[in-house]
Amino acid sequence: MKALRNKKIVALVESEFEDLELWYPLLYLREEGAQVDVVGPKAKEKYIGKYGVPVFSAFAFKDIHIADYDAILVPGGWAPDKLRRYPEVLEMIRYMDENRKPIGQICHAGWVLISAKILEGRKVTSTPGIRDDMENAGAIWLDEAVVVDEHIISSRRPPDLGAYVKAFASVLTDK
Predict the structure, then answer these.
(1) pLDDT under 70 in the chain at which residues?
(2) N or C: which end of the chain has fewer CB within 10 A?
């Protein structure tokens, strides 16, 4: 039996996402039975990752009702710097935070949580390159493969993906 059957997850996308940080969780979670919807600025749009791997969005931000979802994933790369400029994305992150639904963020994805203003007092990790940004937003930054602080699951980089997706799936299973 698939552990995540009946779970719905939003995977945010914009151009220049970190290919592995989108695809690895997407495939792992789907294999575990979850419905993972790729959601971007436009529906049925092709987005290209930093290393050239494309993905097509199923829906546009405006087309989904975030309350219908159990969790949200934010991949890293340069996409987070774009994603955090969309009010709809920040509203989704705040909704998930207020409702204590799992929020997964890896690498530069912390920028989205910073812009959503949800990191005050939270333990997180990220790529070391945005450590100062995370701490300036009030987060307690840890140099660990994965950090789980209640419903926020964070990770550093692609080498940590195994621990990250397992932790994310575990938190989602417990919800």
Answers:
(1) 1
(2) N
Among the options 7, 82, 84, 108, which is catalytic?
Answer: 108
Give the domain range for residue 82.
8-174
List pLDDT tens digits, range 122-154.
999 999 999 999 999 999 999 999 999 999 999
Number of domains making up the chain: 1
Active-site annotation holds for 108: yes
CATH number at residue 141: 3.40.50.880
- Residue 60 tokens read as 């546009």
Instruction: State pTM to two decimals.
Output: 0.97
Residue 3 maps to a domain: no
**Does residue 167 form part of some domain?**
yes
